[in-house]
Specification:
The complex is a heterodimer. Chain A is of the alpha/beta class. Chain A has 9 helices and 10 strands. Chain A has helices at about 65-75, 95-105, 125-145, 150-165, 180-195, 210-230, 240-245, 265-270, 275-295, and strands spanning about 20-30, 40-50, 55-60, 80-85, 90, 105-110, 200-205, 230-235, 250-255, 255-260. In chain A, helix 3 (about 125-145) crosses helix 4 (about 150-165), helix 3 (about 125-145) runs parallel beside helix 5 (about 180-195) and helix 4 packs across helix 5. Chain A is globular. The model of chain B has no long low-confidence stretch (mean pLDDT about 90). Chain B has 2 domains: about 10-95 and about 180-195 and about 205-295, Rossmann fold (3-Layer(aba) Sandwich), CATH 3.40.50.300; about 105-175, no CATH class. By secondary structure, chain B is α/β, with parallel strands linked by helices. Chain B is globular, with a radius of gyration of 21 Å. In chain B, helix 4 packs parallel to helix 7 (about 165-175). The longest helix of chain B is centred in the middle third of the chain and has 18 residues, at about 195-210. Chain B contains 10 helices and 12 strands. Helix content of chain B is about 30%, strand content about 25%. Chains A and B meet through helix 5, helix 6, helix 7, helix 8 and helix 9 of A and helix 8, helix 9 and helix 10 of B. The complex binds adenosine-5'-triphosphate (ATP), iron/sulfur cluster and magnesium ion (MG). Iron/sulfur cluster binds near residues 254, 295, 297 and 304 of chain B.
C-alpha cells in the first residue's frame, strides 16, 4: 500500500474526545432591496453543540430552519456574526481567510449536487487531485514537512482513493461527465478525502440519489468513518438515513437548536413539538409502508 | 373484440422512445412499455434514476424534447391515439384533461407573476369564464390545496413562498381544469418529510373528491404506501413488474422489486442503532447505450440462470393481476 494513503499519511496523534465545539453561533443575512439594506433576517441564533471525534452529528429540521447556514459557518464558507467554533483550542469563527488555510484541509464539505462544483472538462483524476494541487504548497508541505507530491505520487493517491470509495481506478482518466449520479457522489467523497480531513460536512449529500445508491453511499460513509475515525456533520431531510448514520441528532427550528441528544433518545422520546412533527410525518409514511410489507409476509 | 376504451382512461402499448443526442450514441429510453390506467385509479411508477420514468411522463403529454423520438407503440387516451393527434387537439387535452405536477415547481413557476395570476392563467386558457368567475375559481382552488388565506397567497410572488407552498401552487394549476389524469413526477422528492406527507394527503384527497386518476412517479417505495392502488416497477427502460401495491410490498415477485423493498424496509425509521450496514444491490444500472441482450437486471441478479443472459424474459402471471418479466416464474421455450 502506498505511504500516501489517507490512512497513514498523517503525523498527528489520534485525537479522542471532543472534536468541535460551537457556542452562541449567530448569523444574519441582509434581505430586501438595495435601498433597504437595513432589513435582515436571522438565519441562525444562539446555536450551541459539540461533535465528538469520530462521531456523527445530524442536523434535522424543516426547510429554512437554518441547517445549511450552520454547516456553512462550520466549514467557514460563511463567517458567523458572533459565537465561537472551537477546533482543538482554536476559535475559527472569526479567523481571517489567510489564517484559515490549515483548517480548510481538516474540514471538507460535500454538497447535494457535486458536479455543479466540479469543472465539467475535468477527468476523475483531475477532480480528485485538484484540492491537493491548490493547497499543496501551503498546507501539505508545512504540515507534513514534505516539499510536495510528484505527479506519480498523486496518481497513486487518486488510485487508492478511487478504490476506497468503490470506483474502478481504471476510470481515472475518464471525463466526469461519464459518471452516473451515484458515481459522482463517490468522486465527491474521494475529492473531499484527498486532503485527509477530519471532519466532513455533508449537506443533503444524499438528496437526489436513488434508494439503492443512497444505501451504498450510507454504507461507504460508515466504512470510511470506521477506517479513518472521521467526524461527520450530516444534514439530511431523510430521517431514516439520519437514524442510520447519526450518533447525535440536533433538531433545528427557526434558526435555533430546539432539541439535541443521542439518536435513540430523540427518536424514541422526542420532547419538542418540532421534533415530533418531523417524526410523526416520517413515521406515518413509513408505518403505512411497514404495514404493507408486513401484511403478507 | 371487447371494447375496453370505457374502462381504461389511458392505454399505453409497446411504447418505444429513443433520444438522439447531438454527439453520442442514441439511447433507447423506453423499450416497449405497456401500461393501463383506469378512471380514478392511482398508479405508481417505481424506478431508479435513468430508468425512463420522466420520459414516460413527457411522452404521455407529448412533450418530449426535440431530440427524442417516439419510434413505436400507441398511447390511447379515452380511446384516441395521442401519438397521431394534431398539436391543436393536444393543446386542448394538455392541462385540461391530462396535466402534470412538475418535480421542481420553482423552475415551472414564473418568477414575475403572482401565484394567483399564474393559476388564473390556466383557467383563462382553457375555460370560458369572466374575470370575476376566474378570481373566485382561483381562490377556491387555493383553498382546496390547503391555503387558509387564499386572498393573501393570491398576490404573493413565487420567491416569497416556501418549497411546500410553491408545490401547492403547482398542484392548484394542475387541477384547475379538473383533469381526468394527473401526472405527478417526483412531486415530493425536493420536499422535507413532513411536507411530503402533506402533499400525498392532498393528492389522495383530490382523487377522492374528483375521481381524478393519478400517475405518480417516484424512486422511493415508501411514497406509494397507502396511496397507490397499483404499481409498475421500471428498470432500464422496461416495466419489469406490475401488481397491486399490496403485492409489490407484501409479496414482490421480481428480484429487483424484492431488493428495493428490502432496502426500503431496512431503512425505515425504527429506532434501530447506528453501525449496521444497509442491504444493497451490487453494481449499477446498465449503461443505456449498451444494454444487456437478456434480462437487464441479470448482471446484478443473485438468482440469474443461464437463460437470463440469452433472452429477454417474457411476461408471466404467477398470481392474479400480477405480471412479471422474470424467468423464475415460467419455462423458457426456444
Ligand atoms: N444567501 C442568503 N441570502 C438571504 N437569505 C438567505 C441566504 N441563505 C439562506 N437564507 C435564509 O436563511 C434561512 C435559513 O436558510 P438555510 O438555507 O440555512 O436553511 P435550511 O434549513 O438549510 O433550509 P433547506 O432545508 O431548505 O435548505 C432561510 O430563511 C433562508 O431563506
Ligand atoms: S430473469 Fe433471471 S436475471 Fe432477470 S431477474 Fe429473473 S432471475 Fe434475475
Ligand atoms: Mg438546506
Amino acid at each position: 500500500m502506498s505511504t500516501n494513503s489517507p490512512a497513514n499519511r498523517g503525523n498527528e496523534p489520534e485525537p479522542i474526545g471532543r472534536f468541535l465545539c460551537a457556542s452562541g453561533l449567530c448569523k444574519k443575512y441582509a434581505r430586501g432591496s438595495l435601498w433597504q439594506k437595513d432589513r435582515s433576517i436571522t438565519a441562525v441564533r444562539d446555536v450551541d453543540f459539540e461533535i465528538q471525534h469520530g462521531k456523527t452529528l445530524a442536523l434535522v429540521g424543516a426547510s429554512g430552519s437554518g441547517k445549511s447556514t450552520v454547516a456553512r459557518c462550520v466549514a467557514r464558507l460563511e463567517r458567523p456574526d458572533s459565537g465561537q467554533i472551537l477546533i482543538g483550542g482554536t476559535d475559527i469563527a472569526q479567523l481571517h481567510p489567510s489564517e484559515l488555510a490549515p483548517f480548510r484541509s481538516r474540514i471538507q464539505m460535500v454538497f447535494q449536487d457535486p458536479v455543479t462544483s466540479m469543472n465539467p472538462r475535468f477527468s476523475a483524476r483531475e477532480v480528485i487531485e485538484e484540492p491537493l494541487i491548490i493547497s499543496e504548497p501551503t498546507i501539505i508541505g508545512r504540515q507534513s514537512g514534505q516539499v510536495g507530491y510528484t505527479r506519480e505520487d498523486r496518481r497513486d493517491l487518486v488510485r487508492t482513493l478511487m478504490a476506497e470509495v468503490g470506483l474502478s481506478p481504471d476510470w481515472m482518466d475518464r471525463s466526469i461527465l461519464h459518471f452516473s449520479g451515484g458515481q459522482r457522489q463517490r468522486l465527491a467523497l474521494a475529492r473531499a478525502l484527498v486532503l485527509r480531513p477530519q471532519l466532513l460536512v455533508l449537506d443533503e449529500a444524499f438528496s437526489g440519489l436513488d434508494l439503492s445508491t443512497q444505501a451504498q453511499i450510507a454504507n461507504l460513509l460508515l466504512d470510511l468513518q470506521e477506517a479513518h475515525q472521521l467526524t461527520y456533520l450530516l444534514i439530511s431531510h431523510d430521517l431514516a438515513l439520519v437514524v442510520h448514520l447519526a450518533d447525535v441528532i440536533a433538531v433545528m427550528s427557526g434558526g435555533r437548536i430546539v432539541e439535541i441528544g443521542p439518536t435513540q433518545q430523540i427518536i424514541l422520546n422526542p420532547s419538542e413539538a418540532a421534533t415530533k412533527k418531523q417524526l410523526v410525518s416520517a413515521k406515518l409514511a413509513t408505518a403505512k409502508f411497514a404495514a404493507a410489507v408486513g401484511a403478507q409476509g | 373484440m371487447v371494447d375496453n376504451s370505457n374502462k381504461y382512461l389511458l392505454q399505453v402499448h409497446e411504447l418505444k422512445v429513443t433520444y438522439f443526442p447531438a454527439n453520442g450514441d442514441p439511447v433507447r429510453a423506453l423499450d416497449g412499455v405497456s401500461l393501463d390506467i383506469c378512471s380514478g385509479e392511482v398508479v405508481g411508477i417505481l424506478g431508479e434514476s435513468g430508468c425512463g420514468k420522466s420520459t414516460l411522463a413527457s411522452a404521455l403529454l407529448k412533450m418530449l424534447p426535440p431530440q427524442a423520438k417516439c419510434e413505436d407503440g400507441s398511447i390511447l387516451f379515452r380511446g384516441r391515439d395521442l401519438l397521431s393527434l394534431p398539436e391543436r387537439d393536444l393543446r386542448a387535452i394538455r392541462g385540461q384533461e391530462i396535466s402534470l405536477i412538475p418535480q421542481d415547481p420553482a423552475l415551472a413557476l414564473n418568477p414575475v407573476m403572482t401565484a394567483g395570476s399564474q393559476v388564473s392563467e390556466v383557467l383563462r386558457s382553457h375555460l370560458p369564464l369572466n374575470t370575476q368567475q376566474r378570481r373566485q375559481g382561483v381562490l377556491d382552488l387555493l383553498r382546496e390545496v390547503g391555503f387558509n388565506e387564499p386572498q393573501e397567497i393570491y398576490s404573493t410572488y413565487p420567491h416569497q413562498l416556501s418549497g411546500g407552498q410553491r408545490q401547492r401552487i403547482a398542484i392548484a394549476q394542475a387541477v384547475a381544469c379538473r383533469p381526468a389524469l394527473l401526472i405527478a413526477d417526483e412531486a415530493t422528492s425536493e420536499l422535507d418529510v413532513s411536507l411530503q406527507a402533506e402533499i400525498v394527503t392532498l393528492l389522495s384527497q383530490i382523487r377522492r373528491q374528483h375521481g381524478t386518476a393519478i400517475l405518480a412517479i417516484s424512486h422511493d417505495p415508501v411514497f406509494f404506501a397507502g396511496f397507490a392502488d397499483r404499481m409498475a416497477v421500471m428498470y432500464a427502460g422496461r416495466i419489469v413488474e406490475v401488481a397491486s401495491t399490496d403485492v409489490i410490498f407484501g409479496r414482490p415477485l421480481h428480484p429487483y422489486t424484492q431488493a428495493l423493498v428490502r432496502i426500503a424496509t431496512s431503512s425505515v425509521v425504527t429506532g434501530a442503532a447506528k453501525s449496521a450496514r444497509l442491504p444493497v444491490i451490487d453494481g449499477e444500472t446498465p449503461n443505456p447505450t449498451s444494454l444487456p441482450v437478456g434480462c437487464r437486471f441479470e448482471p446484478r441478479c443473485c438468482e440469474r440462470m443461464d437463460v437470463c443472459s440469452r433472452r429477454y424474459p417474457p411476461e408471466f402471471m404467477p398470481a392474479p393481476l400480477a405480471n412479471v418479466n422474470c424467468f423464475k416464474y415460467g419455462e423458457h421455450v426456444d
